[in-house]
Design a protein that fits this description.
Layout (H helix, E strand, L loop, with lengths): L1 H25 L7 E6 L5 E2 L8 H8 L9 H9 L7 E8 L4 E7 L4 E5 L2 E5 L5 E2 L10 E2 L10 E3 L7 E3 L2 H19 L7 H5 L5 E3 L5 E4 L5 E4 L6 H12 L12 E4 L12
Parallel strand pairs: 1-4, 5-8, 13-14
Antiparallel strand pairs: 1-2, 3-4, 5-6, 6-7, 9-10, 11-12, 12-13
Helix pairs in contact: 4-6
Amino acid sequence: MKSKRLLILLSIVALVVAVIVVFSAVFAIRDDSVNVVVHNFQGEEIANSTTTPTKQQVLEYVKGSNIIFLNKQQLLNKLNSDSRLSAWHAFAVVKFPDAIDVHFVERVAFAKMDIGGDAVYIDFVGYVMEDPAEDNGQYLDITSAFDFTSATVQKEVGKPLGFTANEKNTQRLACVLDTLKQLWACYVEVDNFAQILGNQDVFTFDSNENMHIKTKVGAEIIIEEPWNNTAQKAYNAFSVYYNNSDNLQQDGVVIVVRKDGRIDEIPQQ
């Protein structure tokens, strides 16, 4: 009886091992399991070329891995930390039963800040970019948003801009970037940011860490507690600002976005 039970147990173990082996083989990522999809900054899909990310670069991180258990965020983090891909941002991994699509978008510098006399350019997600060939004032200067008196800044090209031991500046950077993404969501082209907001002293934070945004015509947007639901508050503010029927795009207008996201006061100064 004991021998029979042992035989059954061994059979079950063998079956489990066989299933695991087959399962791993069927869903393992192979050379033909990866598709790289690249987009320009406007979101349009573009053709792969000698300068775009390659399938082999992605395979270095995932070949042999099980598609089902693949951690998409970990893969994105690894790709975005790869110095060879500093001109591209990996933003999505789409899994299929037998393949994955990895989406990249071209990084474009759109803002800058003065750090110790050096101009540092960043993209929409806060990665440091190579200095552009020329700067004719088309880049939005966001220096005024930060306190550099005690900040040590990580500004290596191809890596996220970072403030060492300065949580306040880190939070402010996130608020500024989220706000500018919402301006873009209102169909304002990146090249026109400086024309609308001016190219310096645009963002400031008061003693309560409320964010103040000054436009080129002299209007001001104040967002209370900007770290809380930044995107929605900024979108609400810009939607009101661009409401042609209210004629708010003029000097002296102040748009206040309250803590809960409501715009309950638009005083004329």
